[in-house]
Amino acid sequence: MSLVSDLVSTETMKGSFVLIIDDEPDICRLLQMSLVRLGYDVKYVHELRAGLQCIQSEQPDILFLDIHLPDGSGLEAISVFKNKYPALKVITISAYDNGMEKQTALSAGASHFLAKPFSVKNVDELMKDVKS
Known about the structure:
Elements: H1 3-13, E1 17-21, H2 25-37, E2 41-45, H3 48-58, E3 62-66, E4 68-69, E5 72-73, H4 74-84, E6 89-94, H5 99-108, E7 112-115, H6 120-131
Parallel strand pairs: 1-2, 1-3, 3-6, 6-7
Antiparallel strand pairs: 4-5
Helix pairs in contact: 4-5
């Protein structure tokens, strides 16, 4: 990539709206802090139901979706979200970093998989990949 395409790509994503659906407040705050620093508008919720309402009303560009939530399976929700909002980039996050869940998430339409625990550096690298 050239410097010009890097700048255009960065400008395109700046101000993009990111929704995080995760039941762990610390994970939500870490992601929010990392993404805001990169120029994203970020909101988080802790349940699938609240996430679906937010997606319908605010239509985020990027969704960080935990696989295991108190009110349902993030894995099952991926295809629902992608069918209704095909342009939505879904990044699954999970403490269960086994190959099977990762493959299931990617097959269902997730664009990336982020394993917990993760660092700010992991998020930075992931978002560079998401933008390309």
